[in-house]
Amino acid sequence: MLGTPNLAWSQVFQIGEMNKQEFQALDRDRTAVLMPIGVIEEHGPYLPLLTDSYLVEWLVDRTANAITAQEGWTVVIMPSLPIGVGAPEDFGPRTRDFGSFPLRPATKRAVLMDLVSGLGEAGFRWIFAFDGHGPMINKRMTDEASVYFEDVYGGTMVNLIGVIHPDPPANNRPLSDSVWKEEGLSVHAGLIETSWMIYVRPDLIDSDYVNASAVTANTWDDYETLPNEEDWPGYFGSPRLARADIGADRMEAWASNASDLALRIIDGLDHRELSRHADGQNPAIQRIDGLISDHASRIRERQKEWMQANDVQ
Description:
42% of the residues lie in helices and 9% in strands. By secondary structure, the protein is α/β, with parallel strands linked by helices. Strand 2, helix 2 and strand 3 form a beta-alpha-beta unit.
């Protein structure tokens, strides 16, 4: 991948490639477990369904490099987890024929709590999640699993993408007003996300993005109305404006800030005092969270009825 440095093999381990002896030999107090969390989610006609996962995997690699540059520290990377909550089809709402397969909020929280329980019982003290999928309710599930790990096992767990860095060392270069006018509120598969993917995984992008029509969301309320249109292409914004230099600038800044925050937390910064994205009070975003919850409730009831009918406990 472009921009991805070589990792120090002696200090960075993929957990799925480790054997028992390697796992048991890890110094629990100086090993950081990195957890990339994505989602299987439609990203229009130009980006892959695992876009969120590819982006956080790239960030995990960069943060692993920063942590293992500290003397005595080791990193263990968990497998990428496509367990996001919510998808753009919920906003309309639409049927799931666009390619999104999100989990119910309670399911995601339970999966994470089970995984971190295993890490806690094995004595690990440091977990950094990388959960960049958009909905606030999605990030909230990761935050709740993090608090559970800290309360029950006494370690530290934080979603590095879910908290707001108090003093970020890197900033994005500004884009022109005309670009932002066409891009609008950029949150899904538009200029920004397409630029990220041009930088990280250009091999997975449909080259016809340069001919994409703009689907501009000027207010948060537009995220509820635009997906209702029959010809909605599955993105918001203007992918045609995407460029590799924009992706490089923003991904490198994102990686620098996430790495810096991880090191500050290891050095004693209390992440519980930081603001969290999931605490946002935007009424439109809260309505979208409600639409996601409504869909999850319908799925839960369908599953419950089937289990009762088939005497499944």
